[in-house]
Design brief:
Blueprint: H1 3-12, H2 19-36, H3 79-86, E1 109-124, E2 134-152, E3 157-162, E4 165-173, E5 179-187, E6 190-199, E7 209-218, H4 220-223, E8 248-259, E9 262-273, E10 276-278, E11 281-283, E12 288-300, E13 305-316, E14 333-349, E15 352-367, E16 370-384
Antiparallel strand pairs: 1-2, 1-16, 2-3, 2-4, 3-6, 4-5, 6-7, 7-8, 8-9, 9-12, 10-11, 12-13, 13-14, 14-15, 15-16
């Protein structure tokens, strides 16, 4: 019996609300996405001839792979494919602010990413998808410094830890016109994630990089007693948005393609939060879908000067993977935003590399969500055990 049939059968024999069932469904979803995006297809695209620049084929080369023969399916790119990608156009630069890096850190390379995400909002979108908004009963100012520590375990697998901090000040007006203020600062939630790249882009064809993202968000804000932020979400940033203080599992499919002088990347993230508890009562919120799409124009390869346009959407679904009824409001919501940003390389030598970027995310449409602006800034520092760092 095929392995995914076994997973489906096992899930069907268990409680449909169990965590095991949810994990099985998410694994099946990821396998399907991997197959649909070409993870098991041959490297040769639509019968094209090999490029004249392609390295000579070897016994493990892609020509011997077959969609119909499971023994030839690949779990990781070949060394030939990795080197072909690394010698293609891909100037060392910052890249996106709001989108995850799709290509993987080379083996043994470290990365520290420092972000300051902020949010300023005093309007909200009504209970319908629209570009119009009204005054919100809560006026919010928030800042969420975040650090991401990344390490290339292999050329195909990257490990990351992302602790965060949150500061916010909110003013709320009740029905009688009285105002109350709240203030908090403290540790936010912590996300641990793995990125696995089964397919690297081919510079001679349209085949993109394909990466699978697997994350668990730990409710470290609750562990340290940090008060929940109004609206239930930290300022939108690099990581997919999840409910503040909720233990959450996230799976995603990411893609990236370089076409000089442009780079395109994007991803779809699906998040499931385990049941929470408030005042002794279990709480159930809907699952969340985040999407990101990025367009980069590299104006100066040497300086790493580039201009980005990032698109973001956030959708709260009116259901959960485990099938449980929802008791958190609003039961569904949506937000659409766009962020123009600029990136620059400060230095890149044997000691490491420092790059930075800054931009502002603007809300352009939404439903049952805050209408805010999100100024963001970030700095990355790379270093490698073996000399000058390589661009991912």
């Amino acid at each position: 019996m095929l392995p995914w049939r076994k997973m489906a059968l096992c899930a069907g024999l268990r409680d449909p609300n169990s965590l095991y069932t949810v994990l099985c469904r998410m694994m099946i979803f990821l396998w399907a996405c991997h197959w649909c995006l070409g993870g098991f297809t041959p490297d040769r695209v639509w019968g094209e001839e090999s490029s004249a620049q392609s390295p000579p084929s070897t016994g493990s080369s892609s020509e011997e792979r077959s969609l119909w023969n499971p023994l030839t399916w690949k779990l990781v790119p070949t060394e030939e494919e990795i080197q072909k990608y690394r010698h293609s156009w891909n100037p060392f630069s910052h890249g996106p602010i709001l989108s995850q890096g799709v290509d993987i850190q080379p083996k043994g390379q470290f990365l520290i990413q420092n972000f300051v995400f902020s949010e300023f909002g005093h309007q909200q979108f009504p209970n319908r998808l629209t570009t119009n908004s009204v005054d919100s009963p809560s006026h919010l100012r928030a800042v969420a410094p975040t650090m991401i520590f990344g390490y290339g375990i292999t050329d195909h697998l990257e490990f990351n830890v992302a602790p965060s901090f949150v500061w916010f000040e909110a003013t709320r007006t009740n029905a009688s016109g009285q105002q109350t203020s709240s203030f908090e600062r403290g540790p936010g939630d912590t996300t641990i994630f793995l990125k696995y790249r089964p397919q690297v882009q081919d510079p001679d064809t349209w085949r993109p990089t394909l990466t699978l993202f697997n994350a668990v968000t730990l409710p470290s804000s609750q562990w340290f007693g940090t008060q929940g932020i109004p609206g239930g979400f930290s300022p939108l940033g690099r990581l997919p948005a999840t409910r503040f203080g909720a233990l959450t599992l996230t799976e995603a499919v990411l893609i990236r393609k370089n076409l000089q002088p442009l780079r395109f990347s994007g991803g779809v993230y699906y998040s499931y939060a385990l049941p929470g508890s408030t005042a002794g009562m279990n709480t159930y919120g809907g699952d969340i879908i985040n999407t990101r799409f990025l367009w980069e124009y590299i104006a100066d390869d040497k300086r790493g000067l580039g201009f980005n346009l990032e698109f973001l959407t956030l959708h709260g679904l009116p259901f959960r993977l485990d099938g449980h009824d929802l008791n958190l409001k609003p039961k569904s919501f949506s937000l659409f935003g766009v962020e123009p940003s600029v990136q620059y390389k400060f230095f890149h030598d044997e000691s490491g590399a420092l790059v930075g970027a800054a931009g502002v995310l603007f809300s352009i449409a939404g439903q049952n969500d805050i209408n805010a602006i999100y100024p963001n800034i970030s700095l990355y520092y790379y270093w490698s055990k073996g000399g000058s760092p390589q661009m991912r």
